[in-house]
Amino acid sequence: MEHIPALELKNITKKFGSIVANNNVSLSAEKGEILAILGENGSGKTTLMNMISGIYFPDSGQIFINGKEVVISSPKDAFDNGVGMIHQHFKLVDVLTAAENIVLGLDGRFNLKSAVKEVASIAGKYGFDIDPLKKIYEMSVSEKQTVEIIKVLYRNADILILDEPTAVLTPQETDKLFDVLRRMKDEGKTIIIITHKLHEVLSLSDRVAVLRKGEYICTIKTSEANESVLTEAMVGKKISLNIERAEPKDPVDRLIVQDLLCLNREGTPVLQDVSFTARSGEILGIAGIAGSGQRELLEAIAGLQHISSGEITYIDPKTDKHENLRDKTPVQIRQLGVRLSFVPEDRLGMGLVGNMDIVDNMMLRSYGKGKSVFLKRKEPRDLANEIISSLEVVTPSASTPVRRLSGGNVQKVLVGREIASTPTVLMAAYPVRGLDINSSYMIYNLLNQQKSNGVAVIFVGEDLDVLVELCDRIMIIGSGRIAGIVDGRTSTKEQIGLLMTKNVKTHTEKGTEDVSQ
Amino acid sequence: MTGNNTNKVKDPLLHIIKRGSIVWWKSALIRVVAILIALVVVALITLVITGQNPIEMYKAMIDGAIGNELRIWNLLQDTALLLVVGLALTLSFKMRFWNIGGQGQIIMGAIAATACMKFLPGKVPDFALYLIMIASALIAGAIWALVPGLFKAFLNTNETLFTLMMNYIALNFAAFLTFRWSKNSGNNVIGILNRKTHAGWFPDIGGEGFVGRSFLLNILIVFVMMLIVFVYLKYSKHGYEISVVGESEKTARYIGINVKKVIIRTVIISGAICGLAGLILVSGVHHTLTTDIEGGRGFTAIIVSWMAHFNPLYMALTSFLIVFLEKGAIQVASSPALNLDDNFANIVTGIIILFIIGCEFFINYKIVFRKRKGGAS
Amino acid sequence: MFETILSKFVYVLTSSINNGMPVLFGATGEILTEKSGHLNLGIPGVMAVGGISGVIAAFFYGQVPDMNPVLTILIPMLACLLGSLVMGLIYCFLTVTLRANQNVTGLALTTFGIGIGNFFGASIIKITHVDIPSVRIDATSKLFKATLPFASKLGWFGEIFLSYRFLVYLGLIIAFIASFILFRTRLGLHLRAVGENPATADAAGINVNKYKYFATCIGSMIAGLGGFFYCIDKNGWSNDTIEPLGWIAIALVIFAIWKPHMAVVGAILFGLLLNLYDLIPALGLNIKFPQGYDKLFKMIPYIVTIVVLIITSARKKREYQPPSHLGLSYFREDR
Predict the structure, then answer these.
(1) Closest residue in C to B147 (Cα–Cα)
(2) End-to-end alpha carbon distance in chain A
(3) Per-residue pLDDT band at B3 (split at 50, 70, 90)
(4) Confidence bin at A505 (pLDDT 50/70/90)
(5) With CB atoms 3.0 to 4.6 Å apart as the test, which of A28, B59, B94, C10 could cross-link to A5 if both were Cys?
(6) What is the DSSP letter of C40?
(7) Is B330 contained in some domain?
(8) SS3 string of B299-364?
(9) CATH number of the structural domain A253-339+422-516
(10) Which ipTM score applies to this complex?
């Protein structure tokens, strides 16, 4: 008998306008296996999976489930075909309870009580910890993910797709999730997990399918793979990153953070006992699991986050004057003569205005200068043109809305603007996220240039390989606390990885408290 | 899954895709086609309701709108009156503050102007009367917008619903005042104020022989206002801040814009211009206060502003289009042959506006038919 | 003494219920619509069209000799439902299918609907060349206003509970059924999900557009009945009086924090507030207001609504907020 895979994609192509998200992708997944879809950010992994779960519809190509061609034009079609996807951004209705979310969209008799029972039994079977009557907006991230997974199981899905499920989890939670996934695999389910983390691929999956820039590259048996093989497949050619790293030139203290404490709206600390110093002429890396307080830290320095206690002191390079930045607004900080530049994580939502053109985006920081009530567009226009030519921004013109540019070009515009103000401190949060290799290297070079100009650079990164090759010192942050500061030249990835999970214990304790409430 | 074997593979017939951008002539063409279809629909409806020849009807409409010099001046003035409200609301809309309280803000401005015209003549010198009248009308409109603005800025209270409620408070206040101030107590008619002295009236421009003498100043004021708002939004720092706050509050905070300040400042200006509209209605047009003096402009101007994509200059065109249709339709309805109700105009403009609203879809989205594989099925 | 207080109370309560009823219909309809994520500012227009459709049908059927009582009730009701359904469909087609701006569409629909109401209210006779001086539907409305004959014999109990025309009971039943469906059934769960987070509902396999269409169209039909109720009250069409009721209905939605059963309470309260000035003597209060102050009393429902709006926004309790996706259109691939 001919072998029939549980899921097979043939020649799937999807375009968004002129951008090709997936080009002629074909791959398959077996019953009872865990298939990892590996690829860099922007390689089209999520788009491809969204077409199986009915969010997008392919421009061309075929999908076969258990050997039969199916048309999945809505999520309902996907469920009917036994496909369930756990999205990276949870698809839950905040004001409804877990049980209500789980039965959402199902037909048949409506009986919440029996649904609650069944949810509890599924939870028992796989070892989930969940209160079916809790409202989603009261839940922690990992609880929400649990609800998502149970939702899919409740529908008897045979093919489960998880989009970067570990991005928001602590290592303990990740381990627990992987146990659950292995149990499901043993039950004969097909698990597809989207990720760009190599160690997860190697520890969890049976096979790995690699995508690169929307194209299918290959499928490798995990038992025959190792990190360098996978990296090569993922990025195209084997690259040792080879980011240049000069010795810092006479570093002096530029920014001193002492005993910082910041609370979130609920009054729980998001930053606690944070103390460190950023020096001129060096790159200070910040490593940590996503959401460990990196954003809050940068925003606290930039004057965007309320500080409950602690000090942030800026030392002026010319006058040596100590300025206290605590409880100052961004405008007040600028008025003190502090040249602080900040490349935020959310480029189009925070750093730039998507519907404005490049020229108007150049003015964001500088428009207020001078007494005139009118805007001066000449300088920003010159700056825009200069950035377009020097950073090779691909755009029809300087008056194109930035939302029409690709991710890499958006980032060049943003970084270009932030550097143009000749900062003394430059903070960049995930500046290469979603960028292709070339753009990434251009960003690394720009950061290095700033470093050699004597700027104190603070770089929040997620790729440990980059951090250990780029940074002079690396500060590891976990659950809002500093887990350690290591030398970038001597430390290893493993060492940093270990520190990243150091503070995790307190985090999970908090998590269980939440559950018991 | 086993229950699926009988299903033939079926493709969705059509598919909607968001457009990245569209060339100007295409979007213009789509709008023109939409208006043409709307005119045909209007013609059909008129035919059914009145039995009138559609071509005759459109002739009558054009005649009603621009049939003689007085009508042309009336048309221009009404365009200006609608435009000025559109300008006011656009300031809020650019900031994504859905001020649908234009009605209330206009009425409050009109009330303030009326109060000045009624109580101040004889007590203060003429120029002071004008100054006080202008100031109080602008302030009254501003306050009416400021109240929801403050709550939006500090509590994030839904401004759409808040401003909507403010309309009816103002309207009932106006009803109360027209009753209290009416000449023959109880008939709710204030009557033309200062008919002899013209105190507080906007001055005529030009001599007796000039038909537009009482219209021209109103039109000029609005024309200047249009230029001011255009420049303010496009070239001033305030206008830039409004755009940033409207597009993304997060970005506004990131660059240190005081979002609350911008919201409050902008709604004050927005309300004040509505107050100006009220002032023009009283001092420049009606010289009295009635409960329906606002004439639905607070709502229609929302459509005007939106159809013009919040561009003050295009707004002159969209106001003109709507006023033209209304004037024409009123003429058709009230022609001696038909002698129908004025509200026929609302039906006509309603249909055309609904078509224009609908056609935006074809400007923003594209419908793609899925190609069948190999043409066989 | 007790007798007079009781009879005054009964009078105030029953008249408040009657006066609040058009608003209750409107609010119930608008709640269903808003729960699907659509702010229909066209409700005043929908109510006007519902009202005028019923009036026209009643007017024409009223010309027929030997009116059949069942048809006298049914024909105007169906006409009203049909008229408001068409308005709902126009709104849906524009905002759901064509994803037009909801505020703009709603306001245009209000202009359009009020125009239709006023135009036909004034011109139907001229258009149809009927030889009757004005549009009156006395015979029909008399039938609609019929109450149980024995209600008055049952004392205060009968007055409070049994003395209403059947449309009042219909309005209350619709409100309670709407609440039941919204909060106790799968249909309601899905509808709430659509209004809160359409992307999630979509991913869960719910046909978002279908729910939006159904909720908005049924909501419009219910609201249309409110317009018709009002016309029955006035024995015909009266110009420009329905629009304020439409806005009050939207206000009542906020007051009821998007719960139809709360709207019942709110409608009775608004019914009282709307006519507070006229009810002052009935309330046994011996206060004399100068003439014209009735206009000031008419502000009260709006002021109360604003206060509720402020309080709920200040408390920030999730359950008291508008549906999160209210006013925004949904496009699946728009992310």
Answers:
(1) C306
(2) 55
(3) very low
(4) very low
(5) A28
(6) -
(7) no
(8) HHHHHHHHHCCCCHHHHHHHHHHHHHHHHHHHHHHHCCCCCCCCCHHHHHHHHHHHHHHHHHHHHH
(9) 3.40.50.300
(10) 0.87
Asked, for residue B38, whether it belongs to a domain, the answer is: no
Q: What is the pLDDT of residues B239-262, one digit of tens each?
A: 999 999 999 989 999 988 999 999
Contact criterion met (CB below 8 Å) for B295 and B9? no
The predicted-structure confidence for C266-292, as pLDDT tens digits, reads as follows 999 999 988 888 877 777 677 777 777
Torsions phi, psi of A505, nearest 5?
Answer: -55, -50
Which residue bears the tokens 């703009």? C104
Residue C89 lies in a domain: yes
Interface list for C 163-202 with A (CB within 8 A)? 185-186, 189-190, 192-193, 196-197, 199-202
Q: Chain B partners of C251 at a C-beta cutoff of 8 Å? A: 161, 164-165
Q: What tokens appear for A69 in the block?
A: 């061609």
Domain region containing C164? 9-148+156-320
pLDDT on residue B11: 52
pLDDT at C52 over 70: yes
Set of chain A residues whose Cβ sits within 8 Å of the Cβ of C206? 76, 104-105
B357 contacts: CB under 8 Å, gap ≥ 6: B303, B307, C94, C98, C100, C101, C104, C105, C108
On whether the CB atoms of residues A319 and A454 are closer than 8 A, the answer is: no
CA distances from B344 to A53, B333, C86, C117, C264 (A): 50, 6, 19, 10, 36
pTM of this structure:
0.84
Locate CATH 3.40.50.300 in chain A: 7-235, 253-339+422-516
Domain boundaries, position B165: 75-316
Q: Give me the helix-helix angle, C208-234 and C166-184, nearest 10°.
A: 160
Residue A496 structure tokens: 């940093």
Residue that is written with structure tokens 């209000």 in the block: C110
Residue by residue, what is the 3-state secondary structure of chain B? CCCCCCCCCCCCCEEEEECCCCCHHHHHHHHHHHHHHHHHHHHHHHHHHHCCCHHHHHHHHHHHHHCCHHHHHHHHHHHHHHHHHHHHHHHHHHCCCCCCCHHHHHHHHHHHHHHHHHHCECCECHHHHHHHHHHHHHHHHHHHHHHHHHHHHHHCCCHHHHHHHHHHHHHHHHHHHHHHCCCCCCCCCCCCCCCCCCCCCCCCCCCCCCHHHHCHHHHHHHHHHHHHHHHHHHHEHHHHHHHHHHHCHHHHHHCCCCHHHHHHHHHHHHHHHHHHHHHHHHHHHHCCCCCCCCCCHHHHHHHHHHHCCCCHHHHHHHHHHHHHHHHHHHHHHHCCCCCCCCCHHHHHHHHHHHHHHHHHHHHHEEEEECCCHHHCC
Instruction: Fold for A7-235, please state it.
Output: Rossmann fold (3.40.50)
User: Which CATH number do you get for residue C67?
Assistant: 1.10.3470
How many of the other CB atoms lie within 10 Å of CB of A114? 11
Those of residues 163-222 in B touching chain C at CB distance below 8 A are 164-169, 171-173, 175-176, 179-180, 185-186
Q: Which residues of C touch B172 (CB under 8 A)?
A: 295-296, 298-299, 302
What part of A 380-409 touches B (C-beta under 8 Å)? Answer: 404
A310 alpha-carbon distance from chain centroid: 29
Across the interface, which of B236, B240, B254 has its CB nearest the CB of A351?
A: B254
> In this complex, is the C-beta atom of C307 within 8 Å of any C-beta atom belonging to chain B?
no
For residue C332, tell me if it sits in a domain.
Answer: no
Cβ pair A17:B251 closer than 8 A: no
Number of domains into which chain B is organized: 1
- Residue B32's Cβ-count burial label (10 Å; 0-12, 13-18, 19+) is exposed
Task: List chains touching A (3+ CB pairs under 8 A).
Answer: B, C
> Residue B57 falls within a domain, yes or no?
no
